[in-house]
Amino acid sequence: MGQAGRTTVVLDRDGTLLDFYEMFHRFVLDLHRQEGVVPPPREEVLGFGYWSSITSGALHIGSVRVRDRVDEVAHRYMAHGTLYPGVVPMLSALSGAGVRLALVSSWVGTEATVALLERYAVRSCFGPVLTRDDLDPGAGPVSDADCKTALARRALDGLGHAPDHRLYVVGDTPSDIALGRRLGAVVVGVRTGNGGGLPAEGTPEGPDVVLRSAADLGGLILQADPVG
Questions:
Q1: Which first-to-last residue range defines the signal peptide (predicted)?
Q2: Thinking of the domain 3-19+83-224, which architecture would CATH place it in?
Q3: Does pLDDT of 70 surpass 60?
């Protein structure tokens, strides 16, 4: 078995593989339309402050508290999502080299995510595809960090990942960096999604490596862990 066949990669979804901006914008526009309210400019909707107002529960559109409806973005609007340029050939190259891949998201939308991957003909590149939908519903409230950690460990078990195999965790947020540290992985940050705000590589809070996008991941991994 070549070194690539002894390598496992856990990939984040939103902002890492998936460009979700159009999904989210359409969701917000539809809510404004339903409530008869004029929406703010697109650049405001897609800004970090707007998202923070949703997650805090502060944002209302008409009579709707947006946080109560935001899971619709993943469940109902995935058809408007796109994989970032270069992601499809990257996934195909890694999978073809024998690298084990898993997709893990602390947000919802497993069924919609699988449909997205099938639309791009890359579902077969992955082993487990897990989101918050796959947590035990009786577990009660679970933080994003604990959710992603539990799902990632389940994915690694499903892939047959062994302690002597090389592990990468790839994402665009501090929670992805924290996940990688918890798992003892090589942590790869990407500048897509929210990755523009990641700390610099090599700093205590930053990833081990920063890439322009996940499209560059194939070159990084196959150069470090060549086939053969």
A1: none
A2: 3-Layer(aba) Sandwich (3.40)
A3: yes
